[in-house]
Design a protein that fits this description.
Rossmann fold; hydrolase; 301 residues; hydrolase activity; AB_hydrolase_fold; single chain; globular; alpha/beta
């Protein structure tokens, strides 16, 4: 396997991509060139969840896909240790203003295409996956990213969304905003996305994936938890309903249990007890089966 850390931004040393590229060796069922997936971890645009990066990349490797984990621009110059007191937070990252994150996704796509021969990648089959805030970034790229980037935009072959923020007009759970950490995260997320603590409805609409769904979108796989206390599962349902209206192929799974940030929801990557959930743990297998219908296998045989 080729594991590298490749810089994407000279001004922000924390912006890079980690590669998990499978070795090219002869196997009867191996595709001549493999599809790839770009993974965007969540973290409220203030941090990046490690368990939504490498563990997920390695899981995608087991399905036969190359994986690339994008560490995009976030609101601080280094990872905050906690979100309890604002005075204890590290300095703000002034290079993290939206929509730079969209361009960073595009850079990874272009990098993969530029190295497709070297890395044995099927450059026409690059997927995009995101969790939570990374799901918002991924959904934004797939819905209105083309409007912002124009000719340099590279369309994903599929979009995979895990407990993603898909409706920017819907308010957060009241319980989240009652907690100091919830208020602080919301404040700095808004500063990154909108440049203000209190964005207008017009500003929210401009960054709202739900409002920008269109008929030519790539197929979408969505999974969420009914018990999520950070982002309502209704956002996933409403997104799927609108995909249906626009005849966009999609599959959706709403699990009855599971907590926000559970990632693979297995015992390997669970950072706390309730991150392990036998029901949610099924989502990678459901995704694998779905991708077999969406991704064209280039076996050359």
């Amino acid at each position: 396997m080729i594991i590298k850390t490749l810089s994407l931004d000279e001004e922000d040393k924390n912006v890079f991509v980690n590669t998990y590229i499978l070795n090219d060796y002869p196997k009867y069922y191996q595709q001549d060139k493999r599809p790839a997936v770009v993974i965007c971890p969540g973290g409220g645009y203030s941090t990046l969840a490690r368990k939504e990066g490498e563990p997920v990349a390695l899981k995608m490797n087991t399905m036969g896909y190359h994986a690339f984990v994008l560490h995009y621009s976030i609101g601080f110059t280094e990872k905050p240790s906690e979100f309890i007191n604002e005075e204890d937070l590290p300095p703000r990252n002034l290079h993290a203003a939206w929509p730079i994150q969209l361009y960073q996704v595009q850079k990874v796509f272009q990098m993969i295409k530029d190295h497709a021969q070297e890395w044995n990648v099927d450059s026409d089959q690059i997927m995009l996956m995101g969790f939570s805030a990374g799901g918002h970034l991924s959904a934004s790229y797939a819905t209105f990213g083309r409007e912002i980037m124009g000719d340099i935009y590279i369309k994903p072959v599929a979009l995979i969304l895990g407990y993603a923020r898909l409706d920017m007009l819907e308010c957060d759970y009241k319980e989240k905003l009652e907690r100091p950490s919830g208020r602080i995260l919301t404040k700095y997320k808004n500063l990154v996305l909108f440049g203000t603590e209190n964005p207008t409805e017009e500003q929210r609409m401009a960054l709202d994936p739900l409002s920008h769904i269109y008929g030519g979108m790539p197929p979408v796989f969505i999974w969420h938890m009914q018990s999520d206390q950070q982002i309502k599962s209704s956002q996933a349902l409403n997104f799927a309903l609108k995909l249906f209206e626009y005849h966009v192929p999609h599959e959706i799974h709403i699990f009855s249990s599971g907590v926000h940030g559970c990632a693979l929801a297995d015992k390997v990557c669970a950072s706390q007890k309730d991150h392990y959930d036998e029901s949610c743990e099924m989502w990678p297998e459901l995704l694998r089966r779905w991708l077999k219908r969406v991704i064209t296998e280039n076996t050359g045989r």
